[in-house]
Write a structure and sequence with these properties.
Elements: H1 3-27, H2 30-38, H3 48-71, H4 74-77, H5 79-108, H6 112-136, H7 138-142, H8 145-164
Helix pairs in contact: 1-3, 1-5, 5-6, 6-8
Length: 165
């Protein structure tokens, strides 16, 4: 690993984890937790503490993925990568913003239906992002796979709440 990648990784991880933490702190409140406790939850719903751990790990992986994307050499090595670099970067940022919006729809507005629409959009954006990112950096794409799997699981949890509450 070169120095540029290490610095980019540390900064990206700090940014992604910080934004995720800031998002969690600003969208969640005591009323939201009380409301959530009363909801009927899916049988596979993990204990509450798992969500914080899972999202921290996922934001770290996103930060590393973003670093691989930024440090790819699309302009020198590969004409296909050069073609997809900007598009991959745009999709990466857009899907991350959509990810952050989910918390406000679910926790702040306490609206599982809007959150479900949001996460379905995310379920579409993330695989597209992975495909685009893969054209620039396979390593970057690999780090996004656990995230895609987790949001698929989160979609199941969210759908269950919409159907049974």
């Amino acid at each position: 690993m070169n120095k540029k990648f290490m610095i980019t990784s540390v900064l990206s991880v700090i940014i992604f984890v910080s934004l995720g933490l800031f998002n969690a702190r600003t969208s969640n409140n005591e009323l939201g937790f009380t409301w959530y406790a009363m909801l009927e939850k899916a049988p596979l719903t993990p204990p509450n503490f798992v969500f914080g751990i899972a999202w921290t790990i996922l934001y770290v992986l996103m930060g590393v993925s973003f670093s691989f994307l930024l440090c790819a050499k699309p302009y020198k090595e590969n004409i296909i990568a050069r073609k997809y670099f900007n598009l991959a970067l745009i999709f990466f940022i857009v899907q991350f913003i959509v990810n952050l919006i989910w918390s406000y729809m679910f926790w702040t507005f306490r609206n599982p239906f809007l959150a479900l629409i949001n996460i379905i959009i995310l379920d579409i954006l993330v695989p597209i992002t992975i495909v685009l990112v893969c054209k620039v950096s396979k390593k970057s794409a690999i780090f996004l796979i656990p995230y895609m799997l987790w949001i698929s699981f989160a979609t199941y949890l969210n759908l269950y709440m919409v159907l049974y509450n």
